Amino acid sequence: MQTAKFQSSNDAGVLSANQGSVSGNAVASSTGPSGLPEATKQLAKSQLERVGKYITGFCAALVVLVVVSLIFLVAQHGLSTFFVDGINPIAFFTGDTWNPHNTGADGMPLVGALPMIVGSFSVTLLSCVIVIPFALGAAIFAVEINPTLGSKILRPALELLTGIPSVVFGLIGLMVLVPWVRSWAGGTGYGILAGSLVLAVMVLPTVTSLAIDALESVPATYRQSSYALGATRWQTIWHIVLRAALPGLLTAIVLGMARAFGEALAVQMVIGNAAIIPSSLTTPAATLTSILTMSMGNEAMGTVYNDVLWSLALVLLVMSLVFILIVHLIGRKSVSNNAQ
What is the CATH number of the domain that holds 256? Predict the structure, then answer.
């Protein structure tokens, strides 16, 4: 009898221990390994995600606010030339005399911006004409001819060229290009040609890098299919690869033009800074950026001359937006062609 009672008491103890273990496991599973309830952990995770969403949203809103504020600031001061100072927009964009401190026969300041506009477009277009063959040839070599040499030598050289300050390019142009142009073509050596050569060297790494990315984006199956049909390497490059990469190549050229159009210091050092319509590539000229960098710090805020300089800055801003719009249009057309 005593043995039976002792056995039943042991069974009851084991049962109670098992129940305690089960309840302990249940509590542990509900609290998790860190000792916190699962509901609390989920709440903390959702709060962390909400905070991250707010922080990233604030950063995005700040970027948009800065862009809108800059556009508003430049537009406000730039349009003051026409709405406050009474300058005729047609006379501003078509006039060929730049002398804001003097007045013309109509009593208005002589603020014809056409020489600077012509100078900016001239150096931009000529520099792109110079750089496109070299950039495209280097990109083809790095992707299609010798990718190993292109990745080990060409790309580091492009990165090094990109990191050189613009004042160094301007100094080299002033000491090397200007005397060479003077000895080769006569004149002072300053002008559109010298500015275009400097810009071509500065734009070269940008256009080349983007062209390499465009060529690398062409699927390898295009090349394999062309080779399977009996085409040679150059036939494949010309008829298949370049055509497939055309939107990316056009984007590279447009971005290079935008880079060249907004360059200031290097061009200012070699172009001559004469606010006249150039009669040749070797006569001194001026660009929008060169006039801005030379004059903006010398004029008081609120004067007509200062407002006119803001108008030149507004022209630069509008041209930058046009370049960006062209890039988006090219990208959209490329996407629609791929979808078809």
Answer: 1.10.3720.10
